[in-house]
Amino acid sequence: DTAVSQTPKYLVTQMGNDKSIKCEQNLGHDTMYWYKQDSKKFLKIMFSYNNKELIINETVPNRFSPKSPDKAHLNLHINSLELGDSAVYFCASSQEGVSYNEQFFGPGTRLTVL
Amino acid sequence: DAKTTQPPSMDCAEGRAANLPCNHSTISGNEYVYWYRQIHSQGPQYIIHGLKNNETNEMASLIITEDRKSSTLILPHATLRDTAVYYCIVRGVYSGNTPLVFGKGTRLSVIA
Fold it and tell me: A6, A34, A113, B39 — which has fewest CB within 10 A?
C-alpha cells in the first residue's frame, strides 16, 4: 500500500503549456504539502494545506495553484509553464497532534519544461 | 533558513558504522532534532528525532550532546542502500504542521 502517491511520475511538456500534478494520501492525515527540489537539489516548501484550507503559501508565482478537493488529495496546477519550473515536485502529508509530526513524502514528479 | 550545519559529504565502508555530525548551536529549549534522508530520486524519509536524550530505533541511533548544540546520527552497520543525502533539521515541539526546512544535508556514500 502506497502511503503518499503522486501522478504522473514524469512529465515532459513545452513552455507555455498548463499541467497538473496529483497527490493522494491514504494515511488519514489532515495536512498536506508541496515541496520543490530544483536542479541544485535544494528542497523548499511551496504550499501547505490543513483540512483543505491553505495555511502556507511561500513566495511562489501565482501561476502555481494548489487545489484540495478533500483531505486526502492535494493537486498542483501550473499555468504557462516556464523553463525554470523544471524540477522535482514532492507531495507530503502529516497529522497534527501526533507527538513528532513525521512527514511522509511521495515519490516525486519530475517535471521537464522544454 | 535552516538552523543546522552539516558536512557536505562523507564516505563510509560497507559494514562499518556511519557517524553523521550536525551542529545546531542556536537550538532552543523546546526544539527537537530530526533526521531525514533522501535516497537518490526518492522522497525524503523520516529516520529519527530527539530532544535531549539519546534515541535508538530500528534504523539508527541519535546522540545529542549535553548542551544540545550538536548531535550525531549513527548508522551502526552501513549498507550500500544507506547511500543517500542525510538532513538534520531543528524543529519546535509545538511546530504543529509547519513545513520542514531543509538545509544542504550530508551526502553519505557507502563504499563496498
Answer: B39
Place of cell 504557462: A80
Chain A residue closest in CA terms to B97: A96
What does the DSSP assignment read for B50-107? ESSS-EE-SS-EEEE-TTSSEEEEEETT--GGG-EEEEEEEEETT-TTPPP-----EE
Choose among B49, B91, B96: nearest Cβ to A96. B96
Sequence letter at residue A31? T
Res. A98: pLDDT tops 70: no
Q: Is B104 on the interface with A (CB under 8 A)?
A: yes
> Residue A40: what pLDDT?
85
Q: A70-92: per-residue pLDDT in tens?
A: 989 999 999 999 999 999 999 99
The list of chain B residues with pLDDT below 70 reads: 1-2, 93-96
Closest-CA residue to A107 (of B81, B39, B107, B58)? B39
Nearest CB partner across the interface for B97, out of A43, A94, A108: A94
Contact A30 B45 (CB under 8 A): no
Of the listed ranges A35-44, A50-59, B3-12, B17-26, the one predicted with least confidence = A50-59
